[in-house]
Amino acid sequence: MTDQSFPHLTVTIPGSKSITHRALIAGGLAEGETILRNDLQCEDTFHTAHALKSIGVKMVRDGDHLIMEGTGEKGPRQPWEKAIYLGNSGTSFRLLLPVLALAKGSFLVTGTPRMRERPIGPLVEALSHLGVTIGSKKGLPPVRIASNGISGGNVTLPGDASSQFLSALLLSGPYAQKDMEITVSGELVSKPYVDVTIDVMGAFGVRVKRDGYAKFAISAGQRYEPRDYPVLGDVSSASYFWAGAAITGRTVTTQNIHPHGRQGDIRLLEVLERMGCRVKRESDRVTVSGGPLKGVDVDMGGMPDMVPTLASVALFARGKTTIRNVAHLRFKESDRLSAVAREWGKLGGWVEEFEDSLIIHGNEPLHGSQVDPHDDHRLAMSLAVTGLRVPGVHIQNPACVGKSFPRFWELWKTCLGNHT
Predict the structure, then answer these.
(1) Which residues are catalytic?
(2) E strands in 271-412
């Protein structure tokens, strides 16, 4: 469906969630004042900020700027075990465990019931090997930490579970007592997020030596330096507006998006082009125009958060779309493979679910229904895309988008209209 009668629409995308998490940690570990500009304010980043405050980092909000006073290595000693609640923010939980291991004290790190089902074992084992007193039951949260730092040394992480385990060790590595070398066994999933981590570390003055995605080395004694740091727009958030353009034939420009940056989800644009969209990339924005769509076969292992977005676009494409190499999606905010198959099916979609992949058959007759996003922000926003073409899509708990994009519904209605 292509309709050129609609006006050219423009939306400004808020700051990146993944960059904000990492910049908060780097700024918190730097000694002195850091200013984060355009940082994302959402449930997940609030959890990271709250945990950093609990170990002595000071923060003051000034409009769209966050002014931080980092502790360096001078955080206050905790006189008793402190509980750190991180909701269902898997990013916060993983990236912060080594940060808390650097702090002086004991911590009980916990979260929602769903968070307590999300595996953390490989990171706990790695930190234990690096000299941290840490433990969990069956490799799941909650996690107890009683530590005076990270000794450092050599450690191996599995590559097929989560790139966040690697990012977590990298971010805290400069503050270990001796050099740290990390070997990744097997193929690393979600590689671009590791690139984002290393970019943020570099921006704050810390260098990582690497051999591709197989080995990483951080020299002890390096320190993050306070910065005035602008957070780029969130490519993952922009994807829903690109998908809306794709299925309606409209033209949508997303501002504050840097198409040549490190955020891996920018590669969704290449997939949309293969499907039949026109894409214009400029220095600080991306414009997508929809058109007749065709199915694709694509490995999404490097951009798993884009799977629900692509699954919504695929419903309206000629032929079938095969999404491969995404077994790790079963351990996100929901089991996203099972949830997509179930909820897209309620709308009449024909979705085949496999252990590590999905096949979506396009151009099936669709109808409205009440759908459950499983308290998963990315499912809710992807279902909103479907609602642009299917009347009567009613999304339960639409507020769950606050996990990553609190202003989503406001911007969605302004840009593409409220059809859900």
Answers:
(1) 305
(2) 278-282, 285-289, 297-299, 320-324, 350-353, 358-361, 369-371, 393-395
